């Protein structure tokens, strides 16, 4: 073949190949449209799979990767474009003939190109990970009242900021009496550091009284995104991680005694450039023990500052000519203590009855209990006054909160059920109505500064001074609410058990109940979070026939004594995170008045005991995270005709379906129909 022939062949290829491609759009019209539909189905399936992975990751606290988010967005657009092409085909089926070759060519070409784009996009969607742990912020903004317009507080604030800016100062102490505003001060310091480059990490840890080093380590590690897996090297692992995070600032709020930083896992501050420790305490002795270079005392507010704060909280009623003088006298009794001013101002907000103000002034001038010295007498009287101004029905609920340990995050919904068990919320309404009413109470207590926001949503806590006052009230002011609170402190000394109606031994470190614990008047017994407690002696329950609330959660009790069935007045039984097996719960059958039973997170509970079916008045049953619960015998659930709440997240899932072939059914397992038959069930 000579050069001319070769040239002709090449020219033919240049002409015929493109022609062949374009003719293919006409010839393969139906194939292209069908292939596009198939590829869209593949795209949808892949997108749903990735969506599910993203949802799972996000539910575990991770964040969607940007590349994945972009892929999912493009997938939606591609699907929409393909659907438009399919719609055009569907609307023009009568025109799919050679008489409209131009339209046929155009649609086929678009379908082919869309199919190729979708195929490529599907291949690009093979992600190893679709979510990632969130970036740990340098500073987490803390809720804190503004200190603007309070010169004495602003002065303390500037002293702290100046000390943080001094390279020669490593440890800074902030001290003052309880309720003086130390936490507000350091929270404002934390928030001021947000957006600055001063520290790579600012970490706030609430130390509080009797706090364990292990908890402090856990709080710091959580803030760093670190898991301390090895119990023998927690301090070392934490220290190594902190060195990588330098420069850092760790704020220890509410220290009650010297804290050994090395035991916690804080590396030597003096050897780390830019790293600092800031702490708050009620005692100057703690400052000395911590060897802080600078100690900043938070003083009481001046009269002008106190009046400004009091007026803000009490409202314009203080400007009423008939009350102004009394109001000036009342706020001065607060001694410049912010907690007292805020609490008292809110208690008297909008009150225009002169007699109420006279009574308030009279109460504030009375002597406080002998164990509350100096300024704390004013704090007690202020908080007691706020308590006195509560609606009568809220008072027992408030006092009940002191049964929890100091600085304890109280789960609101659980507490409301305890309130109901005690009879505080008896109104004949549904569980949902009770929960709503309980939340209303909680909001009122928070508004009066008698409860504070907890660490997480759905939790509250008590300020330590408010809790001390509540304990004092429950012991001395009202015989009906007399409580023994040894939560977090253990049992010491002789105790006259018979006089108490409520006893809290939460986190008290006990491994058994003391001999002679005879409590005929007892209504509530809280013994949760005693991991060494392996049994509850039968004779204890035999002597507590009036008991209405019993909490044994987070203990190692493995069997309930038969005498439990004698507690005919018991309304609430909490066995959360225990180690019970189904056969160890036979004593439940006698609890005919039981309304709330919490068996959540019992990892050894394999079979739901049939005795639960005897609990005819049960309103709430919590089986959350009973991972190994594999047997729920038929007929138990359907007998709980008053049940309004059944929690089974991450629990039993082998429900039978009525009408199923008997040969493929166990005929011994609970059915969906049993749940459906519960007419009161709403949760």
Describe this structure in words.
The structure is a single chain. By secondary structure, the chain is α/β, with parallel strands linked by helices. The protein has 4 domains: 3-132; 151-297, Rossmann fold (3-Layer(aba) Sandwich); 303-386; 558-683, Leucine-rich repeat, LRR (right-handed beta-alpha superhelix), CATH 3.80.10. 41% of the residues lie in helices and 9% in strands. It is built from 21 helices and 18 strands. It has an 8-stranded parallel beta sheet with strand order 11-12-13-14-15-16-17-18. The chain has a 5-stranded parallel beta sheet with strand order 4-5-6-3-7, with helices on both faces. α1 crosses α4 (101-123), α3 packs antiparallel against α4 and α15 crosses α19.
Give the helices and strands, then pairings.
Elements: H1 3-27, H2 29-59, E1 63-64, H3 66-91, H4 101-123, E2 131-132, H5 151-165, E3 171-175, H6 182-192, E4 201-206, H7 213-224, H8 234-245, E5 248-255, H9 261-264, E6 276-281, H10 284-290, E7 294-297, H11 303-314, H12 324-332, H13 338-347, H14 354-364, H15 375-388, H16 395-400, E8 410-411, H17 412-422, H18 431-447, E9 452-453, E10 459-461, H19 464-476, E11 483-485, E12 502-504, E13 524-526, H20 538-542, E14 549-551, E15 572-574, E16 596-598, E17 620-622, E18 645-647, H21 672-676
Parallel strand pairs: 3-6, 3-7, 4-5, 5-6, 11-12, 12-13, 13-14, 14-15, 15-16, 16-17, 17-18
Antiparallel strand pairs: 1-2, 8-10, 9-10
Helix pairs in contact: 1-4, 2-3, 2-4, 3-4, 5-6, 7-8, 11-13, 12-14, 13-15, 15-19, 17-18
